[in-house]
Design goal:
Layout (H helix, E strand, L loop, with lengths): L3 H8 L1 H13 L7 H11 L2 H33 L4 H20 L2 H10 L4 H10 L4 H33 L1
């Protein structure tokens, strides 16, 4: 098991990046990288902690996208489908992709990345419908940087408040 807190302590900003990357790359097993970003914000410059943690988390989210992309293509490769079934699946995929592109899909990805909503689910969906990976990454990057900044500055403000009270 990787000692996430040890990464941050030993490697500083690089540790923040790696902890966020690992925390976002894990799909099944949750990794508490949020707490480490808060703690790092109280120890390092919170602006850079937010930016660096957001970049690491955005790169980590590409695992969900890749999983969705792979599932869709493996299903098509190994499932014996009739021509009609394949056309229906293409139609379904095209309908959802068009809806997603035309109805604030970019904003929805940012919202999922910024909040504690399960952004792995949206990443898998985007990969399965072959949503533009550049748009996906930029939306996730914006959302994760915003989240990282909020957490890091929250850690700094919380630490300062704690020092004043005690």
């Amino acid at each position: 098991m990787i000692d996430i807190a040890g990464l941050v302590h030993a490697f500083g900003y690089l540790g923040v990046f790696l902890a966020s990357l690992i925390g976002s790359a894990s799909i099944i097993f949750p990794v508490p990288s949020f707490a480490l970003v808060i703690a790092a914000g109280s120890q390092f410059d919170p602006f850079w902690v937010g930016i660096i943690s957001g970049a690491g988390a955005a790169i980590g989210e590409l695992t969900g996208y890749g999983l969705g992309y792979g599932i869709y293509h493996l299903r098509n490769k190994f499932k014996k489908s009739t021509k009609k079934q394949k056309e229906e699946l293409k139609g379904w995929k095209k309908t959802f992709k068009n809806w997603f592109d035309n109805h604030m899909g970019f904003a929805l990805i940012m919202i999922f990345a910024f909040t504690p909503l399960p952004d792995d689910v949206i990443g898998i969906f985007c990969g399965a419908v072959k949503y533009d990976i550049k748009k996906f990454f930029i939306a996730v990057l914006i959302g994760k940087i915003m989240l990282g900044l909020v957490l890091a500055y929250g850690g700094l403000l919380g630490f300062e408040l704690f020092e004043r009270l005690f």
